[in-house]
Design a protein that fits this description.
The chain has helices at 11-23, 37-44, 60-67, 87-92, 105-113; strands spanning 3-7, 27-31, 48-52, 54-55, 58-59, 77-82, 97-100. It has 117 residues and is an alpha/beta fold. It has a single domain (3-113), classed as Rossmann fold, CATH 3.40.50.2300. The strands form two sheets. It has a five-stranded parallel beta sheet, sandwiched between helices. It has a two-stranded antiparallel ribbon with strand order 4-5. The longest helix has 13 residues, at 11-23.
Length: 117
């Protein structure tokens, strides 16, 4: 079973994603907008970080940069999401994948599972 760290500031989205991912057999850890996401990732050592580009007052892009500074998190797969098409910027700053909101559950699951095959 894979562990997913979910960093999202929309409570409805957190609830929906948590339900979907748990139904698919994933262990889900959530980070709220005040969480130190890099520290939480170091503590939890998830397989995938699913993170909104705009995480409350924080920039998901800056958080990705901070995570990529940690050798222990070098293999962490990061999937960024946003309602704005920021794919190129996210990938340039170290994200592995990007999903434009709103996205279909199958698109998310496909990205999460694509390196597990």
């Amino acid at each position: 079973m894979s562990k997913i760290l979910l960093a999202e500031d929309d409570h409805t989205m957190v609830s929906l994603l948590q339900t979907l991912l748990k139904m698919e057999g994933f262990e889900v850890v959530t980070a709220d907008v005040d969480s130190d996401v890099p520290a939480l990732a170091m503590r939890e050592m998830p397989d995938v970080l699913l993170m909104d580009v705009h995480l409350g007052p924080h920039s998901g892009i800056e958080i990705v940069g901070a995570i990529r500074q940690h050798d222990a998190l070098a293999d962490l797969r990061i999937i960024m999401t946003s309602g704005l098409n920021m794919k190129d910027e996210c990938l340039q700053h170290g994200a592995n994948d990007f999903l434009l909101k709103p996205f279909m559950p199958d698109d998310l699951l496909g990205l999460i599972k694509k390196n597990d095959a």
